[in-house]
Amino acid sequence: MLQPRPATNKVTACAHGGIDYTELEKLGISPDAIIDFSVSCNPFGPPPGIREALADISVERYPDSEAGELKQALAVKLDIASDKLIIGSGSTELIRLIATAYFEPNDLILIPQPTYGEYEVACQLADSQILKQPILKEPNLKLNIPETIKLIQKHRPKGVFLCNPNNPTGQYVSRVQVEQIMSSAQGSLLILDEAYIAFTENGWPSQDMVNLGSLIVLRSMTKDYALAGLRLGYAIAAEPIITTLKRACPPWNVNTPAQKAGILALNADSYLSECTAKIREARDFLIKELELLGLAPLPSQTNFFLVKVGNATAFRQALLKKGILVRDCTSFGLPQYIRLSPRTLPECQKLIESIKEAGVIIHAG
User: Fold this and answer.
1) CATH topology for 6-45+271-364?
2) Top CATH class, 50-267
3) Which of 32, 138, 169, 217 could form a disulfide with 236, with the two C-beta atoms 3.0–4.6 Å apart?
């Protein structure tokens, strides 16, 4: 039998949050019975009217390969030129496009740890070499920026991935720190992944920085507007970089319902801010109640946060049996931690009740 490229055989799939339907089937649990705290999407669903509008979508025609109407709406929203944008079927597709377009075998790519696992998968597919920088240990798991700069200056990597705020730690790097990294990374491509920027406190605008050097800013409309089932994200970069990414991009990569939903979401001006306020209220409730249980979350500047529980796998399994799904962070190299993303206030109350009920099982793990 014909064998695949050696690089493909080296790829190790990374774990993600969200429902594992095969797992639930084995446990005899309906997916509809699950309250999912493991994904960091807007828990209040898409803006009103989107579901109804999608019923009239024409599915017999190919979608617009350029996603032109959505791109123009985004350009207006962000106050940038449309030729600095590319739309993707989720930001993860764009991560792979970047690796396809820019990384070659044996290129060195710097990826601070722990972080989103798809950066490494994309580099493995490109047969690139990965340089991992450990993030500092407790109490905050913050990225050591001076160490990042030293590694860049020493190894001169082809690319640098920086998740900001970082998944799963929730730590947020300032504009000054990103500028310092960019200044040290002349000749490197910096990928600034801002998938969770909409939920971040005191966020700073980064789109103007694409004019300063080889920078790609990634964002996710999946997270902001609860469009996980449609997949929608975008990248901002200088026009030559966008042109390069388009060459690697398959035609019709963003389906028609996703494009339509994105346009409608952008026109729902106050929806995201209203949801963000309610998410922060639920987050503050969770933090307070978890602290009372002796499970104080680590500091975070976004909607999700880490909680040290001892044995994350046992904790997750105990809650899953009660219809609650949390993110086991063992795959991030943090086997003592779970990641929680707040949902509605009644659902957060249900989580706290379930932790109390399952406490003996959890701590026995």
Assistant:
1) Aspartate Aminotransferase, domain 1 (3.90.1150)
2) alpha beta
3) 217
